[in-house]
Amino acid sequence: MNKSISTEFKVGIFVIIACGILVFMSFKVGKFKLFGGGKTYDVSVYFNNAEGLDEGGAVQIAGVTVGRVKKIELSGNKAKVILELGEDIVLRKDASAIIKTKGVLGEKFVEIDPGTVEEVIPKNGEILTVRKTMDLDKFIEHVDSVISDIKEVSTNLKKTMGGEEGEKLLKGIFNNLYELTYNINNLVKKNDEGLSNTVKNLEKFSETLADKTPEIASELKEISKNLRDILAENRSNLKDSLENLKNSSEKMDQTLASLKNVSEKIDKGQGTLGKLINDDSAHENLNKTLTGLNKMLSKAENIRTFFEFKSEYLERLKDSRSQVNLKIYPKPDFFYLIGGVDAPFGKFSRETETVTTPTGTTTTITEKQKEKTVQINAQIGKKFHNLEFRGGLFESTGGVGVDYHSSNQKWKYSAEIYNFDRKYSPNLRVSAQYNLLKYLFLTGGVDDIISDRDRRSFFLGGGIRFEDEDIKYLLSSAPLPTK
Hints:
The chain is α+β, with helices and mostly antiparallel strands. It contains seven helices and 20 strands.
């Protein structure tokens, strides 16, 4: 007992102490205490739907975390959410709350508007105003309504443009446009002759005035010249306008024909829009797709993950045993466990030696144990109330195990048996774990109980344990580094 403690055991104890200090400081900075000592108070709020919101989730004001979701329970037909806020957070009577999501697939949290009136919500009071958020099912209903409106517009367009009456209407429009362009052209021709005569008369008038007043004649000639240029320019522009009008008429004809063709194809169910409007199965497929997406997102939010690290000192072997495990619950009663173990000894190996002598043949089997290596845990388990049964790889060998959790979740009793390929008895291990705090625990027990090679050893240790929601909360509560 006076021998020095191994380096691995010292490192394990140091890691546990450092993690404990980190957890304690994170809660201190976040204005919450590990021990229920005040500095916080509770308020409640009732939501019609609190789906996706978990206990331990963040409570924010203007994007700043000011508390957490303490408890969620059913009250009548609504979800009663109890919020734990810092003592310095003041909520007014007109305060409001809403459930929001960080990003598209992020976690949900409660956003609070603290209000502006003078009257304050007391401790254990209630936030009366709840703001609404967009619901995916209502969005699907809106999409279905829009599709119905598009189909109705297409039907009305077909009734207006389709059939003999529609064709007569379009022909009448084209005939009216043709007559209009023809009349404008005739008008321009008639005005062209009249303007030419006017110019000639002005020229004669200017010659007459030239005899009497040379200066006036000169000015009139200039006016006549300018007027002639203006008329010529306007005549060219007018012709261009008529040409453009003619081209526009042809393009309009093509557009109406294309519109009619598209309307007929939509009505016959051709193309993507036609199938979407006329095929009822397209509506059903769209609804199924959106419903499936909603279910998939709900399942992803229900997956729970636990991280555990522990280190134990084996008294007889004078060595430590450390392991890291990740426990994943895709369902509340089913889980996977994967991890690594830094065991004091490696797996056993057998060597067979056969010696032939004049008196006969002798076979010797020697069992050797490998050097200390990292072993693998890979198990699946099923939970029945407070009992959990596991099976798979235990330190890279086959085995089974059972865990029992006390009703208050403070104690866990475990038994594991594995390493059946040893020459001698398999390894039977029993242990008890006490959850000292939410994240810290102590463990102790006996390793290799039924060993007939004198490997039985008592052990004592401890570790840390986090859930994925705890890691998110710790990261959001920890202070950000500043320059």
